[in-house]
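Milestone 3.1: sequence recovery, worked example.
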């Protein structure tokens, strides 16, 4: 007789959380989800999941609890308090936070979870909406090795690169570094696009040949069409990248690491938000370069 897969509670059904939870359902997991938007709950039930009216209801019978919310304040809001995860999860459950938050918040959550008899992993992801839909995410994990091994089958249903990076908080530290690299890469691509267009080059052809050489990157592959069509519908919003760059610059200051390029790009992202573009995809850094170059956007 086949042993049933663990029961999963999924908290947070946004751009990333919805397709990720649906991939677990496709893999055979029984998923109960909670979020604040009824339309997202309806989407989950249409995919074969179960909607819960509260965090407490969602986690009460779960073997594994996954959280995917925007930032540290939201993680703390759903984890702590009389209606939170820690108060209602059963002892022995595995709590996996896949949000992108500060390493310090992850360490504190792990300690608080342990005090309640819960195992905790921080497991932020990279790959954007496309990676979430295609189940090709890169998942960077912090926590105990035994807990990582217990969670590995679930991670394998969500991503193709799954690595334990060290103790609690390590996943978030690696994610912060990831967001630094991505932001600088998008900024470089955006500057190249404006340079190429102002020079009268066939932009599509230029991006194709650049992506076939040393300048090629996953960022350029994923964002090529955004640059060409100026379609900045959010796969990963500027608002969230602004939050992540705040995490990496703060963490780097704590450990004494200089981030000169990161600091510049963080200011450019902040400027873009101030001009009302925070809800756009992070490839909209192109709009900032265009404005600086005198192009009407």
């Amino acid at each position: 007789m086949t042993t049933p897969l663990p029961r999963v509670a999924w908290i947070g059904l946004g751009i990333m959380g919805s397709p990720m939870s649906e991939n677990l359902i496709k893999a055979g997991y029984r998923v109960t989800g909670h979020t604040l938007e009824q339309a997202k709950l309806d989407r989950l039930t249409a995919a074969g999941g179960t909607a819960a009216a509260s965090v407490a209801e969602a986690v009460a019978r779960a073997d594994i609890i996954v959280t995917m919310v925007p930032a540290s304040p939201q993680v703390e809001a759903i984890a702590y308090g009389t209606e939170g995860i820690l108060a209602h999860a059963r002892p022995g459950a595995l709590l996996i936070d896949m949000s992108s938050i500060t390493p310090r918040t992850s360490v504190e959550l792990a300690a608080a979870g342990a005090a309640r008899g819960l195992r905790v992993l921080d497991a932020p992801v990279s790959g954007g909406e496309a990676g979430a839909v295609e189940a090709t995410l890169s998942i960077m994990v912090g926590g105990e090795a035994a807990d990582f091994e217990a969670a590995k089958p679930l991670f394998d249903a969500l991503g193709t690169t799954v690595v334990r990076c060290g103790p609690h908080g390590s996943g978030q530290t690696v994610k912060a570094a990831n967001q630094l690299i991505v932001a600088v890469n998008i900024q470089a691509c955006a500057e190249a696009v404006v340079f190429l267009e102002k020079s009268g080059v066939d932009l599509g052809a230029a991006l194709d040949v650049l992506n076939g050489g040393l300048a090629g990157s996953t960022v350029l592959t994923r964002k090529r069409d955004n640059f060409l069509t100026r379609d900045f519908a959010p796969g990963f919003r500027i608002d969230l990248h602004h939050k992540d760059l705040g995490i990496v610059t703060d963490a780097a200051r704590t450990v004494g690491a200089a981030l000169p390029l990161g600091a510049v790009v963080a200011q450019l992202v902040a400027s873009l938000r101030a001009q009302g573009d925070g809800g756009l995809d992070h490839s909209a850094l192109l709009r900032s370069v265009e404005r600086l170059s005198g192009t009407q956007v």
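The longest strand covers residues 159-166. The radius of gyration is 20 Å.
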